Each structure stands twice: as structure tokens, then as C-alpha cells.
Amino acid sequence: MMGFQHSGSSTTLLYIETEDFKLYIIGKAENKKFNAINANINIEAHLCVDTCCERIIKTINESGELDINESNSMRPSFFEDGNYQLIVEKFNNDSITIYHSDKEIRESIITIGNNYYGSFSFNGDIGHSTFRIRKNNKEILTLTVEIFLSKVDYLKDYKEILNEVNEEISSLVFDFLGKTFQQATLKDVSKQTGVEFTEILLGIYDKFEKALNLIEKHPKHGVLNKENIKNIDKVKRVSRSSANYIRKHSNLLQQSDNGFIEINSNKYIPLKVIENKKVTTIDIYENQYVKYIIKTIIHRVRNIKENILRLYGIENNYYISLNNFENRLIKHQNGFFKDISDLHGKRSMSLVFKMSFGYREIFYYYMMLKKGLDISEGLYNITPKKLWNLYEIWCYLKLHKLLKELGFTTLKNGIIEAKDNGITLSLTRNKESKITYCNSTGKNLELWYNKAYSHLPTTNQRPDTVLCLRNMDRSDRIYIFDAKYRLSVDRNSAIGPMEEDINVMHRYRDAIVSELDDSLQFKYNTFGAYVMFPYSNESEFIKHRYYKSIEKVNIGAFPMLPGSTSLIKNHLCKIVSESYIESTTKLPTYEVEDDYPRFKNTNVMIANISNKQHLEAYKQNKFFHIPSNKLSNVRLGVEYIAFYQSKNSFGDTSGIYYYAKIKEVRKYKRKDCSELPVLRGNEEQDYLRFELEEIFSVGPIKTVEYGVELITYTTLYLLKNAETLHELHFKNRLEIELYKVLKEICADKKTRIIRRTEYFLVGGVKIEILNGKKVRIEDEVVEWGEIREKVSYYLECKRDKNK
User: What is the DSSP letter of 461?
Assistant: First the structure.
């Protein structure tokens, strides 16, 4: 036996001895991750050994030794990710079986000689876990231990994850119902879940009470066998329990020739026996459950009323409505349901709630209301004990909430479904779901759950969460967020994601590509890929290499737990505010020559269009012309022309919307243009005429602080992907990186950025890129990492000077 006790760093964690057997559970005495997160301090684990036999119980102490334990607690020793061995040594040849509800644990236990041995893990289950030992088919001992989380705070984070998932699902259901029933979103209550619950209750209460009335008029009932002690002459049906009763009350026997009980050749008849009488009752499980529903709703209504009363007073319309609902529900509770017992224990749902009128409707409406009450009873098809699954869903819903906080509103909710038995959450394994969004600037997003990518050059991919930025005519941008409920503690005690999970992010980016139309080449669709893992110390994690790698290659990790989502929120803000061109700077580049068509090949001429009449003529007749004294000849290499619509002439539709390929260029007199009227005295003026091929839509590329004075040049790549006129003048990737930094500074300082040919102006401060990734700010040369600090300094100097 002792050979089992020290397997590597394993030791005996729990020892039980009875008259029939010895039981050992062996595993590692310490859990590195549990200790590293430093959250589960001074916590005890539940322990229950239930047996009618004499027993000795020993548990491991802080010194790693076994001590006698007569209490109902022990040192935390069992964890979701631990590996354990169970050994039972029998003292006799009686038949013993060991039962556990988890099939894998149960089937791992095998017989070796006269002993039993099992090697298992708890498969991510948490909370109480019970082993049952039976001898000759009779249960002789039950052992219940507590399984701890190794990666999050057992008492805090786990409950908060449950609450936040419930809260967010409530919000989604409310939004779903609002669109279904065309209800308005109300904001009169501080707690959003209270508003959601109230709105759902307002929408369904009359139907709910109608179903209650139907139950009270036609309740389901059951038949009970009721036993009473009666005189034998008044009993219709004698219970089998009478025999035991008579044995204990022999004084009730009376000697009689008609007696049917014979003792020592004398006949007796009992004066009293137990009568078995069948009684009809409405105090059955189904009615108890309806009473439970009523009490639950009353409790919830009272909580919301207290919040309203504290913030808005008794005259609030919602308070009045909820008070009315509460009084009506109390009448039902104190009326028909007064003599119905309270619900005890858990049972599977009966067919009554699926088929019977009244009960079916009550259950349906309760499911709708439950979306604002509690997740832990499993109505979302989530098993809370499987925390890896719950964590994955929480991460998805948290991203949804963060996008809403960044100003995105839900256009279509694809994860809430209405079915016959109520409203359900469709976030299940291997099933695609998505929510679509739009913000005030017209940006469109999709947040996918379990998005499947097939028909790829290598293998199919299915990441947990995909954020897709829809860019109309431009290429879409994909960002992968993969929830991994595991973490790594390195030799320096630094906590981060598992290295293999980071490698998966590289795989996603390399694998999820799209085929170019005009070649056999592929292009990247995935612009960034990130692991989300359970860790709360964000200030510590920003020092980690997997956080710093995001800035370098846009692959890395974010800690994600309740209250610890600021890093990922900031990154989401950066992603959705970046233009397509800005976001491409982090994509892998294999050759310097790749940047030539992007920044150097200025083959597009941008021309300022004088008015709407000219634009329509150019589009309809596929040409453009300009006086030759303003443009004597076309720059070498120009193949395309883009039309710039100025603010002065086009107002809200200013910017670049159209471009075309140049077919030929020739000179002619202005009088030879039949498509546009000529001004008197201008007939003989020389013009340069561009004959165009098909005219295409682009952008729109929006005007910023200034437009195009007359003629300027850019590349076709920049034209097709730019969102503002600033971006048409980028010269390289370094300039894009500088522009991104300056945009953030301008947002913080509430100033604007102006793009000049060779430099930028931010609030009057001049910033110019130099060779070697250095920047000149005003007259000071600074390193790249000093840009924010120095620009802020010179902005303050400018403001002080202006004062």
C-alpha cells in the first residue's frame, strides 16, 4: 500500500478506516495555481463522512501530514484540474461497490485482487462531489468532498461570473422581447435588471393571472393513502400496518368466538385497527411549484419596489404598477394556494407543465421572467459546475457588453431564440450564433460565437469568439478572441496564458485567409488573435510578454475576470476606431517591396470637382477635363482619377465617392466640349480632357480639416482603403503608426490633427518623422516611446503661452 502514497509529489490527502475497509485518496498536496492567485485565503473545504459504523478519519494538515479529523471541514485539497487516486483495501470477502455520479470516475475504478483502485480527475466540476460505498448492495458509507477552482477566486469570481452572465442574458432577452412586442426601453430604475424584469412582467402579467385563474378553477389533484386508527366496526379497509399496531397494543385484543386472531387455541378480535383510506388532494408537486413561482415573483417585485421607492418615491408609475401586481399575487397566495405546501427538494419537470392548460402557460411565462432572476437552476442549458463552458460564455457576453459601452447598438440578436417551451439561449457548443451592431458613425460589427471557417487551404477552424468589422466595399477585418479557462505560472511566479494557447492564435491568423480573385495567392483576413484567460491583476499583467506582443504583432492575451476587463475594453476601443489602413500595419510583411504599391506607386490623381452639375456630367459621359494652365500635363505613371467633392460645393456629401481608370488623355478647346455649357469668352481656352473607363464607387473617404485644393496624388491601395483624406497621404507604415498615436492624443486633449505634406500639426505643435524611428517635436528630437509625453508637454506650453 505504501508504494501508492508517494507517486512523484503525491501524498495521501484523505484516509478513512472502518471495520470493513481502509480508503485512501492520493494526490498532490499543493496546487500551484491555487496558491499563485492568492485569492482563496483562509478558506476551509467541506468534508462529510456519513456512516453508521465506527470510523477513523484523517486529513492532510498544513505540514503535509495526516491528522485525525472529527470535524466537517478540511484543508482545501481537491481541485478541478487535479489528478487523484482512490484506493480501497478490504478486510473481508464481502462484495463492495463504489459509486460516483460522474461516469468517467465511476468507470475508472477497477478491482486488483481484494482491493479497488481508481485514477481520475474531477473534469472541471466544482463544489460538492460524493462517493457512495455499498456492501452487499447496502449503502454503508457516503463521502462528500469539496472541489475547488484552481484559477479563480472560489467565493468571489465564480459567483460574479454567474451573476454577470445572468444579468447580460436578462438584457438580451429584454432587448429581444422589446423588438418582439414593440415595447419601449425604459430608464427609470437604477438597476437595469429591475427594468428588464418589470417590462417583461408588464407585458405578460394579465396572461399570467389568467392562467392562474384557470389552475384555481380546474386544479390538478392526486390520491393519497391516509391511515387512521378506528374502531374495527367502523373500518371499511384495514391497512397492512394493523398487524404491527396490534403487536404493540395487545391490550386492545378481546377474546371472541368470531375472532380471527388465534393465540394459544383462543380466538381474539382487536377493538381498534388502522384504516387505509384513499383521499383526493390538491397538495401535489405541480401546485407546490406554481406556489413557488408566485412567491419568487413576489420576492423579486418587492426588491425592485424598494429600489424605486428609494430613488423616485411612491408616486412613480412603475412602483404603482408593481404594487398592484404584488397585491393581486398575494391574494392568490393567501387564497387557493394557502393550504398548498411549500416546495421542497428538486424533481424533474412533469408532463403537466408541458401539456395541461394553465400549468403550461404559467411555466412558459415564468421562463420569460426567469431570464431576469437566476441562472443557477439551469434554464439556460448551462451547467454551472462546468466552469470552462460558463467562462467561455461569460467572455462572449462580456465582449457584447463592452461593445455596447463603446456606443454600439444591437441590430440583430441571434443568440436568443423563442421556442415552444419559452425563450432559450443558443450559446451551445459547435453551434454558430452572432449579434450584429451599428454605431452612430455607421460602423457595422458582427460578434460571432463558434464561427466555423471551412474550405480553407489547410484545415477547418472554429474559434470561440470572432469580432468582424464590416467595411462595405472594402475587405472585412477579423479579430479572434479565444476564451481559455486555464493559466500558466512560470518559474518567476508570473501568471499568464498557456504557451500552446498563444500558438493556437498564430494558427488562427495563418489559417483563416481568403483567396484573391485574380491570382492563386491568399490574403490575411485575421488582423489580431487574443487569448482570454482567468486572471484579475491587470496592472501586473501589462508587464507580461504576451501583453506586450499585442502591440508588436497583434497576437497575445488579455486577463478576463469580473472587474478586470479594462485592458480588453481599451483594445476593443482601439480596434473599432482604427481605419482599415491603420489596422494593416500589424499584419505580417515578408518583403520591403510589399509596401511599394501601398505607399510609393502614386498612380491616382485626385481632382477637385467644382460643382454638382460637373460631377453628374463626368459620371454620365465618363470624362473629366481641366484647364491646361492649371494642369499642363499628366504626371508619369498616373492610371486613375478620383473625384473630390468639396464642402463648399457639396455640403454633407463632401469627400471622395467615385474613381475611374483613365482610357486616354488629349488636349482640346473648351468650345469642343458638348457635355457642359461654356462661359462666354472662354471658348478658345486650352483644356486637358481625360476619357474614362467604367466609374466605380469608393469609400466614402471623408473630408477632415481641409480638402483637396485642385490636384493631388495617392496610391490605388490607399484610395480603396482610406476612410479620411489624411490617410491618402501616408508614405509608409511608420507614418501610420505615428498617426494612430497622435489620434489618441487628440482624443484625450480634445484638440485636432492637421496633416501637412511632411509633418503633422496637433494643437499647433509640429511633429515630423525622422529616419531611424525618431521624431522631431517642435525642435526637439525624441525617441518613439516619448511621443505622448513630449506632445502633451508642448501642448501645455502652447496653452500657457496663449493665456
Answer: B
Phi, psi of 165 (to 5 degrees): -60, -45
Q: What is the 3-state secondary structure (H, E, C) of 71-103?
A: CCEECCCEECCCEEEEEEEECCCCCEEEEECCH
Distance separating alpha carbons of residues 100 and 103, to the nearest angstrom: 7
What grid cell was written down for 99? 459509486
Beta strands, E only, 198-260: 222-231, 253-255
CA proximity to 175, closest of 195, 160, 190: 195
Instruction: Please name which of 264, 404, 421 lies closest in space to residue 354, comparing C-alpha atoms.
Output: 421
Structural contact between residues 435 and 446, judged by C-beta atoms closer than 8 angstroms: yes
- The pLDDT tens digits of the residues spanning 677-713 come to 888 888 888 888 898 988 888 878 888 766 566 788 8
> Would you say domain 590-730 falls under CATH 2.30.130?
yes
> Minimal CA–CA distance to 579: which of 754, 704, 736?
736
pLDDT single digits (tens) 245-286: 877 787 778 777 777 777 777 888 887 877 777 777 888 888
Note the pLDDT of residue 462.
64
Cell of 659: 474613381
For 96-132, give the DSSP string.
EEEEESSHHHHHH-EEETTEEEEEEE-TT--EEEEEE
Kindly give, in sequence order, each residue whose CB lies less than 8 Å from that of residue 71, ignoring residues fewer than 6 positions away: 47
CB 496 within 8 Å of CB 605: no
Phi and psi at residue 466, to the nearest 5°:
-125, 125
Contact indicator for 639, 603 with CB cutoff of 8 Å? yes
Model confidence at 4, pLDDT cuts 50, 70, 90, reads very low
**Is the predicted pLDDT of residue 435 greater than 70, yes or no?**
yes
Q: ω into residue 700 within 30 of 0, thus cis?
A: yes
**What ranges do the domains of the chain cover?**
2-148, 186-219+283-370, 222-281, 407-578, 590-730, 732-803
Please report the sign of the dihedral spanned by the C-alpha atoms of residue 276, residue 281, residue 287, residue 292.
negative
Is the pTM of the predicted complex or chain greater than 0.70? Answer: no
Residue 328 — φ and ψ, nearest 5°? -70, -40
User: Can you give the C-alpha Rg of the chain in angstroms?
Assistant: 38
